[in-house]
Structures are given as C-alpha cells and as structure tokens.
Amino acid sequence: MLAGFAIAALLTAFFLVRAIFFAVFWMGTPPETHPIEPWMTPRYIARTYDIPRADMQRILDLAPDETPRQPLDSFARNRGVPVQTYIDEIEALLDARLPK
Amino acid sequence: MTDLLLLWVSDYGLVVITLATLLSCFALPMPSSLMMMAGGAFAAAGDLVLWQVCLAAFAGAITGDQTGYFLARHYGGDRLWTRLRRKRASARLLAQAESLLARRGGWAVYLTRWLFSPLGPYVNLIAGATRMPWRRFVLADLAGEATWVAVYVTLGYVFGSQIEEVSDTLGNVIGALTAGMMTFLLGRALWRQRGMRP
Fold first, then answer.
1. ipTM reported for the complex, 2 dp
2. What is the spatial distance between Cα B128 and Cα B6, in angstroms, rounded to a whole number?
3. What element of type H or E holds A56?
4. Which residue, among B2, B94, B169, would best test binding to A if mutated, counting the most A CBs under 10 Å from its CB?
C-alpha cells in the first residue's frame, strides 16, 4: 500500500505540472493564431475567425445559398482540390488582416 | 490522432459522439470530453444542434454505465467479489471499499462521472458487484452524466477554436484531482493501519 501511495503522489505531481504547462500555453496563444485544420467546417471557421460570409463563399467557390456542413477535408476531396489550397487561401486572408 | 477524431465528429456528427461516450464507460481510452467539446463548438457554428449534441453524449454515457453495472451484477461480478473478500490478502481493502460505497455510494457514483472521471468505469463494476441498489445507482448516474455533458458541451460552445488547448489543460487537471484523491485515500488507510499496529 505504501508503494501505491508513493505512485499516486507522484502521479498527482506529474498531472499538476502538465496542467500548469498546458494552461500557460493556452493563455499564451491568442485564438486567432490557431492554425486552420482540415477537420474544421466552413461555418466553424467563419465563426471562430470572424470571416465575413462573402469572403468565405468566394474562397470556397460557393453559390450564394450554399452552406456545406462537412469538414474542409471531405469538402475539398469532393471538389478534387487539395485541402491545403483552401487552408492557404484562408490563412492568407487572415494574415492580410492581422495588425502589422 | 486528435485531428482524426475531430474529423470524424465533423464528418459523422452525433453518432461519433454517442460512440465515444459509450466506449469511455468501459475504460477505453477515448477523448470523449474533447469530442463533446467539438460537438459544442460545431453547435455554436450552426453545423450541429445543441440539444442533439447533449442528448447524443448523454445517451451514450448512460448506456455504457448501465451496461457496466448490470454485467458486473448479473454475470459473475458478485461471485468474484465474494470470493476475493474471503481471501486474506484482499479482504480488508475490499471490505473498506464496500463499506465506503454503502455509506457514500451515491456521491461516489456522482463524482466519478465528471470530477474524478477516470475512475467511473471501475465504480460501475464495483457498484454492480456489491449489489448497490439500482435506484440509487441510476439516480446518481443520471445526475453525474448530466453534469459531465453540460460542462464539456458548454466549454466547447464557448471556447470554439481553443477546444484542443482547453481539453489538454482540463484533462490534466482531472488527472491531478483523481490521483490526488487516491493519494489522500491511500494515505488515510496507511495512517489508520499504523494506528492499529503500534
């Protein structure tokens, strides 16, 4: 039981340190610098990064009333476009907007 | 790995969330809290519906917990428990666990749903094996899983793009709390043992 106690105490310390590390990392990264990822859906991207609907429609080449509910990854695959192309275009838009 | 799971959530939606919470009740390593947060984030964006995300996660979790409880209760868990209790090596520890569960079983079930969630699957099995009254188990289970789902889906809804960072931090906080609680319980048991054998 003593060994169990020692292991539990070590684990507690381990998780505490990790929790603090991740919390510091989280506080240090502003949300708008989080990279665009293939699992994100167009609407999710538009909302989190505050991209106007018109810009999003233009980049993804959508009809005015089209709102795909699929992630960027399968959306790109259906179009036969590499997903990175869309990601780059969206990131370029965000970079242009960032304060210098 | 995380990205792949998030891709599944955005590709298949609710089914994946239900499966994740269901499997996490059997101690399978499932980042179910991250997936619930993803569900909340997609609901905020309008790609999923909030109440459906909550219901999907809740249904999976309750089904998993009840399965664990009934498997332990009806398929030999109780007999295994009785046999282990007769063994000298494990008798005392198991008797302590059983009396703790008899006195504070409802709270144990409630808190291991969300605050000490890594212990949840084992508490289901012990509750079934020691024949904890089903009514008490199910009430605490419903309340606990409702808390769990509400907390994580809300976090996802609010934090959006930061769900991965939130999940990393919170996962370790839960780990520290659980390990800390185990340290406390083991320390207390050691202390009492020392008192009995001066």
1. 0.81
2. 33
3. helix A53-60
4. B169
- What stretch of H or E contains A77? helix A72-79
Token code pair at residue B90? 């494990």
Identify whether the C-beta of residue B13 lies closer than 8 Å to the C-beta of residue A44: no
CA distance A32 to A96: 13
Write the pLDDT tens digit of every residue in B1-43: 677 888 888 888 899 999 999 999 988 877 899 999 999 999 9
Q: Classify residue A81 as left (phi > 0), alpha (psi -120 to 50) or beta.
A: beta
Q: B3 and B39 in contact (C-beta within 8 Å)? A: no
Q: How many residues does chain A have?
A: 100
Give residue-wise pLDDT tens across range A20-55.
988 888 888 777 777 888 888 898 888 888 888 888
B7 lies within 8 A of chain A by CB? yes
Nearest Cα residue to B16 out of B64, B47, B53: B53
How big is chain B, counted in residues?
A: 198
> What residues of B are in contact with residue A1 (Cβ under 8 Å)?
186, 189-190, 193
**Residue A43 in contact with partner chain B when CB distance is under 8 A:** yes
